[in-house]
Amino acid sequence: MSVNVETRVDDLGSTEHASDAWDLKERIREREEVLKQRRSFFIDAYRRARDHLLFVEDDLVGFASVRRDGYILFLGVAPEHRSEGHGKRLVAAALQDHDSVSCHARATNESALSFYEHLGFDVERRITGYYEDGGDAYYLRLGDGSSLRGRFADFFRRSVVGE
């Protein structure tokens, strides 16, 4: 069975889908104890980013909020829709506008770290006490700014051949 995934974008300044993104983020936080931002911080960051959203039958299944410099502020995929390529699609959407992308991931979030490593992100450093609750983070980057599109295209070719 084929599922139609609709891609939408909230450009800088828009909060059209911010409440849906907040609700999805909160579902993930409650289940996995990650994405622990306060609502006011989240909405402000969302508004200042370009937000890539994936919908299945009008239900938000994933989103990525990306700053102007290619930093991924938030990346979330509904747990029941993981392993369907949505996270990869969101990172690819971020790469449409940037030669490299970066993000932080909680040092204890093994699934996120595995996901980013699988896509080819490099861990650049560990930051002690990065999160408000004192948790450590890794700063990750995909690409060196010069050959990223080729590197990502190679990754997608390998993953499609392997599927």
TrEMBL record:
<keyword id="KW-0808">Transferase</keyword>
<dbReference type="InterPro" id="IPR016181">
    <property type="entry name" value="Acyl_CoA_acyltransferase"/>
</dbReference>
<dbReference type="GO" id="GO:0004596">
    <property type="term" value="F:protein-N-terminal amino-acid acetyltransferase activity"/>
</dbReference>
<keyword id="KW-0012">Acyltransferase</keyword>
<dbReference type="Pfam" id="PF00583">
    <property type="entry name" value="Acetyltransf_1"/>
</dbReference>
<protein>
    <submittedName>
        <fullName>N-acetyltransferase</fullName>
    </submittedName>
</protein>
<comment type="similarity">
    <text>Belongs to the acetyltransferase family. MAK3 subfamily.</text>
</comment>
<dbReference type="InterPro" id="IPR000182">
    <property type="entry name" value="GNAT_dom"/>
</dbReference>
<feature type="domain" description="N-acetyltransferase">
    <location>
        <begin position="14"/>
        <end position="145"/>
    </location>
</feature>
<dbReference type="InterPro" id="IPR044542">
    <property type="entry name" value="NAA30-like"/>
</dbReference>
<dbReference type="GO" id="GO:0031417">
    <property type="term" value="C:NatC complex"/>
</dbReference>
